[in-house]
Amino acid sequence: MWARSTSEVVDFDSRKLGKFVSDLALI
Question: Where on the tree of life does the source sit, at the highest rank (predicted)?
Answer without folding.
Answer: Eukaryota
